[in-house]
Amino acid sequence: MPRIIRIDATGPFKIEPEKFPRDEQGNLKAIWICACGLTRTFPYCDKSHKVCAAGEKPGVLYTYDPATGQVVDQRSI
């Protein structure tokens, strides 16, 4: 079901649990969780937040087209 979700974050959350997989050098890999709501790979960040981080204004609700990532509506809140 489609819905509008009000999210104030403009970037992901970084999670580094001890039991995550390790890279070739044995280092733990970080996992980035989407906090902007624009990712196409939910819950993981795909860097779609660059669109909202670049120019959203406080006090405005933005609606993005899921296919293009472009703003389709803006409303004062």
Characteristic key phrases:
two-stranded antiparallel ribbon, 22% strand, 77 residues, mainly beta, two-stranded antiparallel sheet, 4 strands
Explained architecture:
This protein has one domain. It contains one helix and four strands; from the N terminus they run ββαββ. The protein has one helix spanning 49-53, and strands at 13-15, 31-33, 60-64, 71-76. The strands form two sheets. The protein has a two-stranded antiparallel sheet. A two-stranded antiparallel ribbon has the order 3-4. It is elongated.
| Order of helical and strand elements | EEHEE
Mean pLDDT: 80
- Whole-number count of domains: 1
Number of strands: 4
Structural shape: elongated
Distance from first to last alpha carbon: 23 Å
Which strand order do you get reading across the main beta sheet? 1-2
**Oligomeric composition of the shown chains:** single chain
- The poorly predicted ranges are none
Q: How many alpha or pi helices?
A: 1
| Helicity, as a percent range | under 10%
> How would a textbook summarize the main sheet?
2 strands, antiparallel
Structural category: mainly beta
> How large is the radius of gyration?
15 Å
Secondary structure layout plus pairing:
Blueprint (H helix, E strand, L loop, with lengths): L12 E3 L15 E3 L15 H5 L6 E5 L6 E6 L1
Quick structural overview:
The protein is mainly β and 77 residues long.
